[in-house]
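Subject: two folds for Thursday's group meeting

Dear M.,

Sorry for the delay on this. The cluster queue was jammed most of the week, so I only got both jobs back this morning. I'm pasting them in the order they finished. Each block is the input sequence followed by the predicted structure tokens. Could you check whether the formatting survives your parser before we put anything on slides? The first protein is the one we discussed after the seminar.
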Amino acid sequence: MRRVVRGFWGPRQESVETLAGRWQLTVNRLTELLPTADSVGASAWRWQQIHMSGPATEFRPDMDPLSNALRAAEAADDWSDQVGFPLHLVAAGVKGWEIDVSGNGGGISPFLLQSIVIAIESPDAAGTPDSELLTLVADVWEPDFGDVSDYDVMDALEDDAGFSVDDPAVGWVGYLSPRRAALVPAGMTAVRKELTGGGALLEIASREHTEAVVQANLRLRDAGALQPLPRPMDRAAL
């Protein structure tokens, strides 16, 4: 079973050290939330870095290696401060589970959203803490919006509700930054949780209820809670 936990935001210039700290927090909290093999701790996960070319390499997701990886991206011939600092890590080691984390942070493009995307493959019968995973993304990356979703939901939003790839949207769990959360219409049946860092988590439906997720997105869009950031973007969040 595959799900994606995502967060998106507009231009936000950040240092390598700040981004490395966000990455380290992400990895640490992922390994706390997801199962470990035989109770041996986070070392059960074996991390690798995925490169634009060449094979994956073993990777230790601590501050120094993370900082070095981001600086290496900055030193590449095609790097631009408009795009920011890309990084792609994967992990395995727990039977039936895989983690794939890709992100782009620190960019200042007024047209390109920054993002963190965590894809998790799990056994069909396994429980996955979706709300806690999205809270992780909200706490660590301070996005404008985010969600827990899958291809069925994404396809339904595009085919049945006219959402495009770059449009703000939510899955069966969604996160909205403070200004977006203030526009959530009264009477929505979603379970709402205010987060300490600002914004709100919305538990909209169970995973299999795709139509309920589509209808919730339509209501949120009509209320203005899912309006795109104005282009050119001049801020990270609505």
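Second protein, same layout:
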Amino acid sequence: MPLHHAVLALLSEGPSHGYELKSRFEEAIGPQWGGLNIGHLYQILDRLVRDGHVTRSQVAQSDRPDKTRYTLTPHGQDELRTWATTAWVRTGGFRDELFLKLFGAASLGSDAVRALAESQRQTYLSELAGLTRLRRGHTDDPLVALLIDAAIAHTKADLELVDSAAQRLEPLARRGVTSHEAPEEPEARERGAM
């Protein structure tokens, strides 16, 4: 539940309203994460209230509808501390569409693997250029800069992987082409034997 815990972290700075939380999240985490859907945020807040991590109160406004204010509870503070100080362990494996594409390309042969690798290489180089420009614009924001640095490191690792893919998948690609070659018809074999 990482987004739930990120909302708890935002509320540790003080009570807040839904749209304020959305803005603060996007500002704190930066453009690399992407926007936070307000409907999803309100679902998270409802769950946090249900679980006793957050309380909800109404703030009257004279010229608009009342605002709902969310406040972190001591139970929510404990949950945040436990989550934020415990190591993250990958549990879902490494699901990445690139590996499915490499599998598909290998089934088509070496030329397909090389074409995918080159296309993907150009995409990663373009991403690196964009991330580098983005990083220069966030030198004063340490958390956003760290997230962009992580994206750069991941992209460089992906680039190294794709650069080695054609050579490493050559045996698989040869098998893929061989298994796709049409079997010779029995009549053709008999004619060839004559």
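Two things I noticed about the second structure. Residues 136 and 145 are 9 Å apart (CA to CA). The first helix runs from residue 2 to 11.

Cheers,
T.
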